[in-house]
Amino acid sequence: KNEVEQSPQNLTAQEGEFITINCSYSVGISALHWLQQHPGGGIVSLFMLSSGKKKHGRLIATINIQEKHSSLHITASHPRDSAVYICAVPGGIQGAQKLVFGQGTRLTINP
Amino acid sequence: DVKVTQSSRYLVKRTGEKVFLECVQDMDHENMFWYRQDPGLGLRLIYFSYDVKMKEKGDIPEGYSVSREKKERFSLILESASTNQTSMYLCASSLRTGGSWYYGYTFGSGTRLTVV
């Protein structure tokens, strides 16, 4: 089964700062998801990526398949970016139809 | 706008009650999933279905059952609700793939269930 580690678990920053959240996994994969969950809310899929980099607005996701590592960056952070960010990967050979989730990174952006 | 809809946002039930959580998707997805989310434990898979009338146990199926009579609807059933089933329940759907790609993985907004 794939194991997923995220860091940091909690992150507090000031508005405008550059944010980096990291995700490492144990079993080689073909794609990785980054998800966002606002307090009390449902989960929104931000990115699915298999190689290189993807950008959406102020959010940038990168992945290194060989290193089994992905990062989520937020440029010019804003209080509305405060949320839990979760990475998820396929469950491995026997769990190809399931995702394994990291524990999440709780991000708080102060004005 | 494509979506996964969960019938209730908040639900309060009594211990021993039979509880139905409904999930409907309008994207013609083959796969549907039920997760529960608890502080410190993250998201854990309860059951999933890859076709009508097909189901597979996830990591924590005890105390739950599911029903998928139509492609667009996946129901989670708590046969006899207990206080340890108080949690946030999330439904998701995705396209079926031959490998480990997850096209169109989409979550519902969640149902916060409290069992008293």
Q: For the CA atoms, what is the radius of gyration of chain A?
A: 14 Å
Category from helices, strands and their pairing of chain B = mainly beta
How many helical elements of chain A? 0
For the secondary structure, the number of strands of chain B is: 11
Count of alpha and pi helical runs of chain B: 0
Describe the structure in your own words:
- The complex is a heterodimer of chains A (111) and B (116).
- With 111 residues, chain A is mainly beta.
- Chain A is 0% helix and 57% strand.
- Chain A is built from no helices and 11 strands.
- In chain A, strands 2, 4, 5, 9, 10 and 11 form a 6-stranded mixed β-sheet that branches. A 5-stranded antiparallel β-sheet of chain A has the order 1-3-8-7-6, with no helix packed on it.
- In chain A, β6 and β7 (59-64) form a beta hairpin.
- Chain A is globular and about 40 Å long.
- The termini of chain A are far apart.
- The model of chain A has no long low-confidence stretch (mean pLDDT 90).
- The radius of gyration of chain B is 14 Å and the shape is globular.
- In chain B, the strands form 2 sheets. In chain B, strands 2, 4, 5, 6, 9, 10 and 11 form a 7-stranded mixed β-sheet that branches.
- In chain B, a hairpin with a 3-residue loop joins β4 (31-38) and β5.
- Chain B is mainly β and 116 residues long.
- Helix content of chain B is 0%, strand content 52%.
- Chain B has no helices and 11 strands.
- Chain A binds chain B through residues 29-31, 33, 35, 41-45, 48, 86, 88, 90, 96-99, 101-104, and chain B through 31, 33, 40, 42-43, 45, 48, 50, 58, 90, 92, 96-97, 99-103, 105-110.
How would you concisely characterize the structure shown here?
The complex is a heterodimer of chains A (111) and B (116). Chain A is mostly beta strands and 111 residues long.
